[in-house]
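Handoff note, outgoing to incoming analyst
You'll be picking up this chain. Sequence as last confirmed:
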Amino acid sequence: MTSGSISLNHVEIAYDLSGPPDGETVVLLHCFGSNRKYWDFHKEAFVGFKTLAIDVPGHGQSTLYEDGCSLELIAGDILSLLDALGIKKIILGGVSMGGMISQTFTLKYPDLVSALMLINTTCLISEDMHQLWKERSKQVLENGTSAVHEALMQRWFTLNAIKNKISGYNYLSETFKNFRPETFKKISEAMCGLDTDRRLKSISVPTLIIATPDDPGAPTYISKRMADFINGSDLHWLEPAQHLSSLEHIDEFNAIVTNFLSKQI
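Most recent structure output, in case you need it:
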């Protein structure tokens, strides 16, 4: 595995690149408040593929934009990273925030994406969610991430996962404690600018959608809506889970992804 970072005009993006150099490239984007180590739980799913796991700007070892940011800006910087690494075609996957960026990238650069994986993500941000993110940002800026840690963990994991301190919960909990308040504010504002919804109808590549019936961040009707809009998409449900189902059902998630990727070779 090669770890590195590339400085662009206004941001530095850190990454891990692993797998056979001549394999098809899978680009992986983690959820809000985590980092590229999210995908360490799912390495088995990507055996045989060249895998590029990125720290989204502001997360992990990637820097945060000095000015405001948007999903479109992040997508453009991922394109610059791919150009710098000489990668011309990708299978793109993202969870939650990473799924929002993945949708944005695919709509902006459709010729670069051969297949898409959208995991516990949404195509709509309601007005209620806009207000909730504003309130959370205010709390975090005033009192740090500890102010919202418990509330978010209970949105992201089942009470059983929290009680038993499963490995995925322990990872996310510790990573989020070190999340920077300024990143929380800027990236949550970027997510609130999500605007894909009906434009998803223009996506024509093979698409895997993994969702959770009880997901508070991506309700059932949204997951079904995305599957209806993306022609020929494959919708799988993982349960019981909250928002980060892959960390609660690691083996099942890996099996679903392995099966999907096997059809893209």
